[in-house]
Fold this sequence. Notes:
The structure is a single chain. This protein is mainly α. It has helices at residues 4-18, 22-32, 38-66, 72-98, 104-125, 131-152, 159-194, 196-224. Helix 3 (38-66) crosses helix 6, helix 4 (72-98) packs across helix 5 (104-125) and helix 4 (72-98) runs antiparallel to helix 6. It starts with a helix and ends in a 7-residue tail after the last helix.
Amino acid sequence: MITLFSILVLGFFLGMRHATDADHVVAVTNIVSQQRSIRSAAWTGIFWGLGHSITLLVVGGAIIVFGLVVSERLGLGLELSVAAMLIVLGLMNLNAAFGWFGDAEEAERRHAEEGARLESWLRKLGAGGAFRPLLIGVVHGLAGSAAVALLVLPLIHSTVGAIAYLFVFGGGTIAGMMLITATIALPVRYAAARSTALSRLVGGLAGGLSLCFGAFLVYQIGFVDKLFSGS
Length: 231
C-alpha cells in the first residue's frame, strides 16, 4: 500500500531529479559560468530553486484547491518563454566572452566588477546576486508547474497531503540545484585560475549551448508541438 510518507519521500527525490532537467541545467550554467566562487554558485542554485518552488506552490496550490486547469496552448506558451530566456542568456554570455555586441575586454571588466560586488553582498548578507536566478526559477516553474503538480498528486487523497508534497518536491529541487551549481562552479573556477582566455572560452561554450538549446526548444514547441500553427 502506498503511504503518504512514501509519496513525500518520492517527491523529494523527484524534486532533485527535476533539477537535472536539461533546460534547468543550461540556464544555471550560463549564470555560474560568470562566477568565480563555489559558494556564490551554490547560492545561485538555492535562489533558482526558491523561485521555481514559489511558482510551483502557487500554481500547484491553485490546481489542488480551486481546480485550476492549465490549457495545452497556455502550457506551450509558458514553455516558449523558457526557450526565449535561454536564447537571451546565451547571447549575453557570448557577448561577455567574445564581445559580439561590444568590447570583450570591457565586458570582462564589467563581469569582474559584478563578481566583486557579489562577493561583497555574500559577506554582508550571507547571500547575493539573487534576483536573476530567482526570476529564472520563477519562469521555469511556470512552464513546468502544471505537469509536476499532476504527476503524483492524484495518488494523494487530501489537500493537506497534496500541499505537503509540493513543499517536499520544492525542497528536493532546491537541494538538487544547489549541488548542480556548486559542481558546475568547480571547472569554472579552475578555468578562471588558469587564464582569462580559458575562462572566456568556458563562458562562450555555456552561451553557445544555451543559444542552440533555446533555438531547438523554439522549433520543438512552435512547429513540432504546433504552437505557432494553432492546430
